[in-house]
Amino acid sequence: MLxxxxxxxxxxxxxxxxxxxxxxxxxxxxxxxIKATAPDAAPPxxxxxxxVDLVLSSPDPEPAAASAEPEGxxxxxxxxxxxxxxxxxxxxxxPIKAGPALDLSRFRTIAPGPTAAPAGTPGMExxxxxxxxxxxxxxVLYQPxxxxxxVLQAAGLEGKVLLEFVxxxxxxxxxxxxxxxxxxxxxxxxxxLETIQRSLFRPARVRGTVxxxxxxxxxxxxxxxxxx
Length: 228
What we know:
Elements: H1 16-37, H2 51-54, H3 79-82, E1 128-130, E2 139-142, H4 150-154, E3 159-167, E4 179-183, H5 189-197, E5 200-202, E6 204-206, E7 209-221
Parallel strand pairs: 1-7
Antiparallel strand pairs: 2-5, 3-4, 3-7, 6-7
């Protein structure tokens, strides 16, 4: 009784319909598992084109052709070859050798001369002549009335002043040459000098050349009464 188990029996054969149904179920389970575990397939995103991608790289520049130099002419030396730096730079002042003293007697001072004179009359423009030496003596073109000093006019005092001066080649009195030669009263000096300084003369001439002339002139101060 023990040599045969109750469960030990030959398995029975399955029907063909059951085999097909089991295969279909297994296939559905396997497909579902693959679908669930597979990642979501997304459509490929469009490629972004940037401006930098559109810039074409420039081709490599062609090497510059070496400048052809004419045959037989050597190249110019560089600046470093022309100017050689000094090897020893002095840092002290060289000694000064004392020479002989300057002898001023060997030099002659030449005073500046007058401007060039016309031909035939050397130095005539710089020369001062007297009225009697001129072919055409100087004459008055304009001379204002003398300013009467108020104090002397109120006192009824009259007078006159004799002045000496040089008329230059332009017809103006030279201020440095003005000086009083004679007077009746000192109070008239300033007014007499002012009158001559404001005067204009026609310059003297010798052989057609204008010259400087020394002149003497009286400046008279006289009180004029109405109707007098």
